[in-house]
């Protein structure tokens, strides 16, 4: 990046990327039931394990409460951003098994997570105030990934993707779950579950 800084500008720009939202199901109930210090240990261990998976795929990540957000395709170009995001989502679900074994051994509850992934045009760059900025993504395609994550429990799917992601995956096998009208949209969108390769 230092050889050609203009190519990797942190200023907001429009780009086709893939974004992933992962959220702990039932976290509010969990927070009510666990002592605060144990809850902090639990969420930190969970985030550490999931971040290890995400970083293995070399992408930015951030935390919003008990949610994790990651995206592919920026700041470095990645023509396979959709495939890498879906591979990471499936790897996160697989890694959760080992995390839950450690939690059970301590007498902690097992976690379940939902993951939503979407591909589309979004704004990416350094955003925030003059006091605090973060390299992040914004836009309708980002909101849609969050909505897909919210549907994962309803459909019993660990990972839900949109049609643009499915198309970008090429020959990756996916199962169509439904066509749904999500909050903020008037037209229904198709949702899919990617199957392990």
From TrEMBL:
**GO BP field:** cAMP biosynthetic process; intracellular signal transduction
SMART domains linked: CYCc
Occurrences of domain Guanylate cyclase (ranges):
18-149
One Pfam assignment: Guanylate_cyc
Q: Which GO molecular function annotation, any one, does this entry have?
A: adenylate cyclase activity
Gene3D superfamilies annotated for this entry?
Nucleotide cyclase (3.30.70.1230)
Q: What is this protein called?
A: Adenylate/guanylate cyclase domain-containing protein
Q: Source species, please?
A: Candidatus Accumulibacter proximus
Write the lineage as a comma-separated list: Bacteria, Pseudomonadati, Pseudomonadota, Betaproteobacteria, Candidatus Accumulibacter
